[in-house]
Specification:
There is one protein chain. This protein has 418 residues and is mainly alpha-helical. The longest helix has 26 residues. The chain has 23 helices and no strands. It has one domain. The model has no long low-confidence stretch (mean pLDDT 94). Helix 4 crosses helix 5, helix 6 runs parallel beside helix 10 and helix 15 crosses helix 16. It is 73% helix and 0% strand. It starts with a helix and ends with a helix. It is globular, with a radius of gyration of 22 Å.
Amino acid sequence: MRLARRAYLSLPLIVFVALAFRLGFAWNYQSHVPRRALSVIPFLFESGNIARSLATGAGFSSPFRVPTGPTAWMTPLYPLLLSGIMRLFGAYTFASWVAAVLMNIGFSAAACVPIFFAAKRIAGLGLAAAAAWLWAIFPNAILLSFESLWETSLSALLGAALLWATLRVSEARRARAWCAYGLLWGVALMTNVALVSLFAFLLGWLAYRRDLRRAALAAAVAVVCCVPWTIRNYAVFHSLVPLRSVLGLQLWVGNNPRAKVVWLGEQHPINDTAERNRYVALGEIEYMRQKLHQAAGYMVTHPRHEAQLIAGRFVSIWAGGTPSPVRDFFRSRSLWFRYVLLFNLALASGAVLGMVFLFRKRNPFAFPVAVYPIVFPWAYYLTLALPRYRHPIDPVLVLLTAVAAFECTAMYRRGCAT
Protein backbone atom coordinates (compact mmCIF):
# COMPACT_ATOMS: atom_id res chain seq x y z
CA MET A 1 0.00 0.00 0.00
CA ARG A 2 2.82 2.35 0.88
CA LEU A 3 4.59 1.52 -2.38
CA ALA A 4 1.43 2.22 -4.37
CA ARG A 5 1.03 5.59 -2.65
CA ARG A 6 4.64 6.49 -3.39
CA ALA A 7 4.10 5.62 -7.03
CA TYR A 8 0.87 7.65 -7.14
CA LEU A 9 2.65 10.71 -5.72
CA SER A 10 5.79 10.38 -7.86
CA LEU A 11 6.07 13.25 -10.31
CA PRO A 12 8.92 11.59 -12.30
CA LEU A 13 6.74 8.51 -12.77
CA ILE A 14 3.80 10.65 -13.92
CA VAL A 15 5.97 12.44 -16.47
CA PHE A 16 7.37 9.10 -17.66
CA VAL A 17 3.87 7.68 -18.15
CA ALA A 18 2.81 10.85 -20.00
CA LEU A 19 5.81 10.50 -22.31
CA ALA A 20 5.13 6.80 -22.84
CA PHE A 21 1.50 7.38 -23.82
CA ARG A 22 2.38 10.16 -26.26
CA LEU A 23 5.29 8.27 -27.82
CA GLY A 24 3.21 5.11 -28.14
CA PHE A 25 0.33 6.86 -29.87
CA ALA A 26 2.72 8.78 -32.15
CA TRP A 27 4.48 5.55 -33.11
CA ASN A 28 1.17 3.90 -33.91
CA TYR A 29 0.10 6.96 -35.94
CA GLN A 30 3.24 7.04 -38.07
CA SER A 31 3.01 3.30 -38.70
CA HIS A 32 -0.33 3.83 -40.49
CA VAL A 33 0.60 6.92 -42.54
CA PRO A 34 3.09 6.92 -45.45
CA ARG A 35 6.36 8.60 -44.56
CA ARG A 36 6.20 10.72 -47.71
CA ALA A 37 2.90 12.19 -46.47
CA LEU A 38 4.29 12.85 -42.99
CA SER A 39 7.31 14.57 -44.53
CA VAL A 40 5.15 17.22 -46.21
CA ILE A 41 1.47 17.49 -45.22
CA PRO A 42 1.87 18.41 -41.50
CA PHE A 43 4.11 21.34 -42.52
CA LEU A 44 1.69 22.79 -45.09
CA PHE A 45 -0.06 25.13 -42.69
CA GLU A 46 0.82 28.63 -41.62
CA SER A 47 3.32 27.72 -38.90
CA GLY A 48 5.15 25.23 -41.12
CA ASN A 49 5.10 27.51 -44.15
CA ILE A 50 6.57 30.41 -42.20
CA ALA A 51 9.16 28.08 -40.67
CA ARG A 52 10.21 26.92 -44.13
CA SER A 53 10.50 30.52 -45.26
CA LEU A 54 12.75 31.24 -42.27
CA ALA A 55 14.82 28.11 -42.86
CA THR A 56 15.42 28.99 -46.51
CA GLY A 57 16.48 32.57 -45.75
CA ALA A 58 13.30 34.33 -46.92
CA GLY A 59 12.48 35.72 -43.49
CA PHE A 60 9.27 35.64 -41.52
CA SER A 61 6.96 35.48 -44.52
CA SER A 62 4.69 33.51 -46.85
CA PRO A 63 2.16 31.63 -44.69
CA PHE A 64 0.31 30.06 -47.67
CA ARG A 65 2.79 27.71 -49.36
CA VAL A 66 3.55 30.32 -52.06
CA PRO A 67 5.67 33.49 -51.77
CA THR A 68 3.41 36.31 -50.50
CA GLY A 69 5.86 38.56 -48.66
CA PRO A 70 6.36 39.43 -44.98
CA THR A 71 3.72 38.45 -42.46
CA ALA A 72 2.62 39.00 -38.88
CA TRP A 73 0.22 36.05 -39.09
CA MET A 74 1.45 34.69 -35.77
CA THR A 75 4.01 35.56 -33.15
CA PRO A 76 7.47 34.23 -33.90
CA LEU A 77 8.59 31.73 -31.27
CA TYR A 78 7.12 28.47 -32.55
CA PRO A 79 7.91 29.08 -36.26
CA LEU A 80 11.48 29.86 -35.18
CA LEU A 81 11.68 26.54 -33.34
CA LEU A 82 10.33 24.70 -36.39
CA SER A 83 12.74 26.52 -38.67
CA GLY A 84 15.65 25.40 -36.48
CA ILE A 85 14.50 21.80 -36.92
CA MET A 86 14.26 22.29 -40.69
CA ARG A 87 17.77 23.70 -40.81
CA LEU A 88 19.06 20.62 -38.98
CA PHE A 89 17.04 17.91 -40.71
CA GLY A 90 15.88 19.53 -43.94
CA ALA A 91 12.59 20.99 -45.11
CA TYR A 92 9.84 18.49 -45.82
CA THR A 93 11.65 15.42 -44.50
CA PHE A 94 10.48 12.59 -42.29
CA ALA A 95 13.33 13.35 -39.90
CA SER A 96 12.02 16.91 -39.46
CA TRP A 97 8.55 15.58 -38.72
CA VAL A 98 9.94 13.19 -36.11
CA ALA A 99 11.98 15.96 -34.48
CA ALA A 100 9.01 18.35 -34.42
CA VAL A 101 6.72 15.70 -32.94
CA LEU A 102 9.29 14.79 -30.29
CA MET A 103 9.55 18.48 -29.39
CA ASN A 104 5.76 18.75 -29.06
CA ILE A 105 5.60 15.55 -27.00
CA GLY A 106 8.27 16.92 -24.70
CA PHE A 107 6.28 20.13 -24.18
CA SER A 108 3.07 18.19 -23.53
CA ALA A 109 4.60 15.78 -21.02
CA ALA A 110 6.49 18.61 -19.28
CA ALA A 111 3.14 20.31 -18.57
CA CYS A 112 2.69 17.71 -15.81
CA VAL A 113 5.23 19.64 -13.75
CA PRO A 114 3.50 23.07 -13.46
CA ILE A 115 0.12 21.32 -13.13
CA PHE A 116 1.49 19.30 -10.21
CA PHE A 117 3.00 22.26 -8.37
CA ALA A 118 0.06 24.59 -9.00
CA ALA A 119 -2.35 21.98 -7.64
CA LYS A 120 -0.06 21.29 -4.69
CA ARG A 121 -0.12 24.98 -3.78
CA ILE A 122 -3.92 25.04 -4.07
CA ALA A 123 -4.83 21.97 -2.01
CA GLY A 124 -1.90 19.70 -1.26
CA LEU A 125 0.05 16.75 -2.59
CA GLY A 126 -2.87 14.41 -3.20
CA LEU A 127 -4.61 16.86 -5.50
CA ALA A 128 -1.30 17.60 -7.23
CA ALA A 129 -0.79 13.96 -8.15
CA ALA A 130 -4.41 13.50 -9.28
CA ALA A 131 -4.26 16.51 -11.59
CA ALA A 132 -0.92 15.46 -13.09
CA TRP A 133 -2.13 11.88 -13.66
CA LEU A 134 -5.24 13.17 -15.41
CA TRP A 135 -3.05 15.23 -17.72
CA ALA A 136 -0.83 12.22 -18.42
CA ILE A 137 -3.79 10.26 -19.81
CA PHE A 138 -5.81 13.19 -21.23
CA PRO A 139 -6.60 12.14 -24.85
CA ASN A 140 -6.58 15.67 -26.29
CA ALA A 141 -3.07 16.27 -24.97
CA ILE A 142 -1.90 12.92 -26.37
CA LEU A 143 -3.37 13.44 -29.84
CA LEU A 144 -2.54 17.13 -30.29
CA SER A 145 1.13 16.51 -29.56
CA PHE A 146 1.63 14.68 -32.88
CA GLU A 147 -1.40 15.15 -35.15
CA SER A 148 -0.61 18.78 -36.07
CA LEU A 149 2.47 20.98 -36.06
CA TRP A 150 1.16 24.02 -34.25
CA GLU A 151 2.26 25.67 -31.02
CA THR A 152 -0.57 23.86 -29.20
CA SER A 153 1.48 21.69 -26.83
CA LEU A 154 3.87 24.53 -26.02
CA SER A 155 0.89 26.80 -25.33
CA ALA A 156 -0.53 24.24 -22.90
CA LEU A 157 2.81 24.08 -21.09
CA LEU A 158 2.99 27.88 -20.91
CA GLY A 159 -0.65 28.18 -19.80
CA ALA A 160 0.02 25.81 -16.90
CA ALA A 161 3.33 27.50 -16.10
CA LEU A 162 1.64 30.91 -15.95
CA LEU A 163 -0.85 29.65 -13.39
CA TRP A 164 1.86 28.06 -11.26
CA ALA A 165 4.03 31.17 -11.51
CA THR A 166 1.08 33.44 -10.66
CA LEU A 167 0.32 31.48 -7.49
CA ARG A 168 3.97 31.34 -6.53
CA VAL A 169 4.87 34.96 -7.22
CA SER A 170 1.88 36.12 -5.17
CA GLU A 171 4.00 35.25 -2.13
CA ALA A 172 7.34 36.51 -3.48
CA ARG A 173 9.10 39.62 -2.27
CA ARG A 174 12.18 39.83 -4.44
CA ALA A 175 12.00 41.97 -7.55
CA ARG A 176 13.84 39.36 -9.62
CA ALA A 177 11.00 36.86 -9.06
CA TRP A 178 8.55 39.38 -10.51
CA CYS A 179 10.90 40.09 -13.42
CA ALA A 180 11.11 36.37 -14.13
CA TYR A 181 7.31 36.23 -14.04
CA GLY A 182 7.14 39.07 -16.56
CA LEU A 183 9.67 37.26 -18.75
CA LEU A 184 7.49 34.15 -18.69
CA TRP A 185 4.58 36.27 -19.88
CA GLY A 186 6.76 37.64 -22.67
CA VAL A 187 7.62 34.13 -23.85
CA ALA A 188 3.95 33.12 -23.65
CA LEU A 189 2.78 36.09 -25.72
CA MET A 190 5.49 35.49 -28.30
CA THR A 191 4.13 31.94 -28.59
CA ASN A 192 0.35 32.31 -28.44
CA VAL A 193 -1.29 35.73 -28.47
CA ALA A 194 -4.59 34.31 -27.20
CA LEU A 195 -3.05 34.06 -23.72
CA VAL A 196 -3.15 37.86 -23.56
CA SER A 197 -6.83 37.53 -22.55
CA LEU A 198 -5.62 36.31 -19.14
CA PHE A 199 -2.95 38.97 -18.72
CA ALA A 200 -4.96 41.81 -17.15
CA PHE A 201 -6.91 39.47 -14.86
CA LEU A 202 -3.91 37.63 -13.43
CA LEU A 203 -1.81 40.78 -13.09
CA GLY A 204 -4.79 42.60 -11.61
CA TRP A 205 -5.26 39.83 -9.04
CA LEU A 206 -1.59 40.02 -8.13
CA ALA A 207 -1.78 43.80 -7.77
CA TYR A 208 -4.80 43.45 -5.47
CA ARG A 209 -3.42 40.54 -3.45
CA ARG A 210 0.21 41.50 -3.23
CA ASP A 211 1.64 44.75 -4.55
CA LEU A 212 0.68 47.11 -7.37
CA ARG A 213 4.29 48.16 -7.96
CA ARG A 214 5.58 44.61 -8.30
CA ALA A 215 2.71 43.68 -10.61
CA ALA A 216 3.48 46.76 -12.71
CA LEU A 217 7.13 45.67 -12.87
CA ALA A 218 6.13 42.25 -14.19
CA ALA A 219 3.79 43.83 -16.73
CA ALA A 220 6.55 46.18 -17.90
CA VAL A 221 8.97 43.28 -18.42
CA ALA A 222 6.33 41.42 -20.44
CA VAL A 223 5.71 44.46 -22.63
CA VAL A 224 9.44 44.98 -23.18
CA CYS A 225 9.68 41.38 -24.41
CA CYS A 226 7.08 42.16 -27.07
CA VAL A 227 8.54 45.50 -28.21
CA PRO A 228 11.14 44.12 -30.69
CA TRP A 229 8.42 42.18 -32.53
CA THR A 230 6.15 45.24 -32.61
CA ILE A 231 9.00 47.37 -33.98
CA ARG A 232 9.68 44.76 -36.65
CA ASN A 233 6.01 44.76 -37.67
CA TYR A 234 5.90 48.56 -37.88
CA ALA A 235 9.08 48.65 -39.95
CA VAL A 236 7.69 46.04 -42.37
CA PHE A 237 4.05 47.15 -42.63
CA HIS A 238 4.27 50.85 -41.67
CA SER A 239 1.34 50.17 -39.38
CA LEU A 240 1.03 49.37 -35.69
CA VAL A 241 0.66 45.60 -35.27
CA PRO A 242 1.54 44.93 -31.62
CA LEU A 243 1.48 41.13 -31.81
CA ARG A 244 -0.35 39.56 -34.75
CA SER A 245 -2.51 40.64 -37.67
CA VAL A 246 -4.97 37.81 -38.24
CA LEU A 247 -7.95 38.77 -36.04
CA GLY A 248 -9.94 40.28 -38.91
CA LEU A 249 -9.80 37.10 -40.99
CA GLN A 250 -10.60 34.83 -38.06
CA LEU A 251 -13.62 36.92 -37.19
CA TRP A 252 -14.80 36.98 -40.80
CA VAL A 253 -14.49 33.26 -41.61
CA GLY A 254 -16.51 32.58 -38.48
CA ASN A 255 -19.12 35.31 -39.09
CA ASN A 256 -20.42 35.68 -42.62
CA PRO A 257 -23.46 34.46 -44.61
CA ARG A 258 -21.79 31.10 -45.32
CA ALA A 259 -20.34 30.58 -41.85
CA LYS A 260 -21.06 27.36 -39.98
CA VAL A 261 -20.28 26.22 -36.46
CA VAL A 262 -17.94 23.50 -37.73
CA TRP A 263 -15.37 25.27 -39.87
CA LEU A 264 -13.58 23.13 -42.47
CA GLY A 265 -11.23 25.75 -43.91
CA GLU A 266 -13.68 27.49 -46.22
CA GLN A 267 -12.97 31.05 -47.44
CA HIS A 268 -9.44 31.00 -46.08
CA PRO A 269 -6.51 32.20 -48.21
CA ILE A 270 -4.58 29.00 -47.61
CA ASN A 271 -7.35 26.98 -49.33
CA ASP A 272 -9.25 29.54 -51.42
CA THR A 273 -7.35 30.88 -54.45
CA ALA A 274 -9.62 33.92 -54.87
CA GLU A 275 -9.09 34.92 -51.24
CA ARG A 276 -5.36 34.40 -51.52
CA ASN A 277 -5.23 36.62 -54.61
CA ARG A 278 -7.19 39.28 -52.75
CA TYR A 279 -4.79 39.01 -49.81
CA VAL A 280 -1.80 39.50 -52.13
CA ALA A 281 -3.42 42.40 -54.00
CA LEU A 282 -4.43 44.32 -50.88
CA GLY A 283 -1.51 43.42 -48.63
CA GLU A 284 -1.89 41.69 -45.29
CA ILE A 285 -2.82 44.69 -43.16
CA GLU A 286 -5.45 46.16 -45.49
CA TYR A 287 -6.88 42.70 -46.16
CA MET A 288 -7.32 42.13 -42.41
CA ARG A 289 -8.88 45.55 -41.93
CA GLN A 290 -11.46 44.87 -44.60
CA LYS A 291 -12.28 41.46 -43.16
CA LEU A 292 -12.68 42.93 -39.68
CA HIS A 293 -15.06 45.58 -41.03
CA GLN A 294 -17.10 42.99 -42.96
CA ALA A 295 -17.31 40.62 -39.99
CA ALA A 296 -18.35 43.35 -37.55
CA GLY A 297 -21.02 44.55 -39.95
CA TYR A 298 -22.42 41.08 -40.40
CA MET A 299 -22.46 40.36 -36.67
CA VAL A 300 -24.44 43.51 -35.95
CA THR A 301 -26.99 43.01 -38.74
CA HIS A 302 -27.63 39.26 -38.32
CA PRO A 303 -28.18 38.66 -34.59
CA ARG A 304 -30.15 35.42 -35.01
CA HIS A 305 -27.46 33.72 -37.08
CA GLU A 306 -24.83 35.03 -34.69
CA ALA A 307 -26.67 33.62 -31.68
CA GLN A 308 -26.79 30.21 -33.39
CA LEU A 309 -23.09 30.35 -34.25
CA ILE A 310 -22.02 31.42 -30.77
CA ALA A 311 -24.20 28.79 -29.06
CA GLY A 312 -22.85 26.09 -31.36
CA ARG A 313 -19.26 27.15 -30.81
CA PHE A 314 -19.82 27.22 -27.05
CA VAL A 315 -20.93 23.58 -27.11
CA SER A 316 -18.16 22.65 -29.55
CA ILE A 317 -15.40 24.17 -27.41
CA TRP A 318 -16.49 22.27 -24.32
CA ALA A 319 -17.36 19.00 -26.07
CA GLY A 320 -13.96 18.73 -27.71
CA GLY A 321 -14.92 19.78 -31.23
CA THR A 322 -18.51 18.74 -31.91
CA PRO A 323 -21.59 20.98 -31.58
CA SER A 324 -23.83 17.88 -31.30
CA PRO A 325 -22.18 15.68 -28.67
CA VAL A 326 -25.21 13.54 -27.79
CA ARG A 327 -26.09 12.79 -31.42
CA ASP A 328 -22.48 12.09 -32.37
CA PHE A 329 -21.97 9.85 -29.35
CA PHE A 330 -24.79 7.52 -30.37
CA ARG A 331 -24.08 7.66 -34.09
CA SER A 332 -20.38 6.92 -33.83
CA ARG A 333 -19.22 3.31 -33.88
CA SER A 334 -15.75 4.26 -32.63
CA LEU A 335 -15.13 3.45 -28.98
CA TRP A 336 -12.11 5.78 -29.05
CA PHE A 337 -14.25 8.69 -30.28
CA ARG A 338 -16.77 8.02 -27.52
CA TYR A 339 -14.02 7.90 -24.92
CA VAL A 340 -12.55 11.21 -26.08
CA LEU A 341 -15.99 12.83 -26.17
CA LEU A 342 -16.90 11.60 -22.67
CA PHE A 343 -13.52 12.71 -21.32
CA ASN A 344 -14.09 16.22 -22.69
CA LEU A 345 -17.63 16.43 -21.31
CA ALA A 346 -16.39 15.19 -17.93
CA LEU A 347 -13.67 17.83 -18.04
CA ALA A 348 -16.21 20.59 -18.76
CA SER A 349 -18.48 19.44 -15.92
CA GLY A 350 -15.52 18.95 -13.60
CA ALA A 351 -14.24 22.44 -14.31
CA VAL A 352 -17.58 23.98 -13.30
CA LEU A 353 -17.82 21.89 -10.12
CA GLY A 354 -14.19 22.56 -9.29
CA MET A 355 -14.73 26.32 -9.47
CA VAL A 356 -17.85 26.05 -7.28
CA PHE A 357 -15.95 24.07 -4.64
CA LEU A 358 -12.96 26.44 -4.63
CA PHE A 359 -15.16 29.50 -4.15
CA ARG A 360 -17.36 27.80 -1.55
CA LYS A 361 -14.28 26.88 0.48
CA ARG A 362 -12.91 30.41 0.02
CA ASN A 363 -9.70 29.07 -1.42
CA PRO A 364 -7.32 32.05 -1.81
CA PHE A 365 -6.40 30.94 -5.33
CA ALA A 366 -9.95 30.44 -6.63
CA PHE A 367 -9.96 33.62 -8.73
CA PRO A 368 -6.84 33.08 -10.88
CA VAL A 369 -7.82 29.45 -11.51
CA ALA A 370 -11.38 30.40 -12.51
CA VAL A 371 -10.17 33.10 -14.90
CA TYR A 372 -8.91 30.45 -17.32
CA PRO A 373 -12.21 28.71 -18.19
CA ILE A 374 -14.36 31.82 -17.78
CA VAL A 375 -12.34 34.36 -19.77
CA PHE A 376 -10.09 32.55 -22.25
CA PRO A 377 -12.68 30.78 -24.47
CA TRP A 378 -14.63 33.95 -25.33
CA ALA A 379 -12.41 34.73 -28.31
CA TYR A 380 -13.39 31.37 -29.79
CA TYR A 381 -17.10 31.66 -29.06
CA LEU A 382 -16.94 34.69 -31.36
CA THR A 383 -14.60 33.34 -34.06
CA LEU A 384 -13.80 29.65 -34.56
CA ALA A 385 -14.02 26.64 -32.27
CA LEU A 386 -11.31 24.09 -33.01
CA PRO A 387 -10.19 21.58 -30.35
CA ARG A 388 -6.63 22.89 -30.35
CA TYR A 389 -7.78 26.42 -29.57
CA ARG A 390 -8.92 25.39 -26.08
CA HIS A 391 -5.74 23.49 -25.32
CA PRO A 392 -3.80 26.31 -23.59
CA ILE A 393 -6.32 26.15 -20.71
CA ASP A 394 -6.78 22.36 -20.69
CA PRO A 395 -4.20 21.89 -17.90
CA VAL A 396 -6.27 24.15 -15.65
CA LEU A 397 -9.47 22.30 -16.61
CA VAL A 398 -7.75 19.06 -15.59
CA LEU A 399 -6.76 20.64 -12.28
CA LEU A 400 -10.32 21.83 -11.61
CA THR A 401 -11.68 18.39 -12.48
CA ALA A 402 -9.30 16.87 -9.94
CA VAL A 403 -10.60 19.37 -7.36
CA ALA A 404 -14.17 18.32 -8.14
CA ALA A 405 -13.31 14.62 -7.88
CA PHE A 406 -11.56 15.12 -4.54
CA GLU A 407 -14.41 17.13 -3.06
CA CYS A 408 -17.12 14.75 -4.31
CA THR A 409 -15.18 11.81 -2.88
CA ALA A 410 -14.86 13.60 0.47
CA MET A 411 -18.59 14.36 0.51
CA TYR A 412 -19.41 10.73 -0.25
CA ARG A 413 -17.16 9.50 2.58
CA ARG A 414 -18.72 11.94 5.02
CA GLY A 415 -22.16 10.72 3.94
CA CYS A 416 -21.15 7.10 4.47
CA ALA A 417 -19.68 7.93 7.89
CA THR A 418 -22.98 9.38 9.08
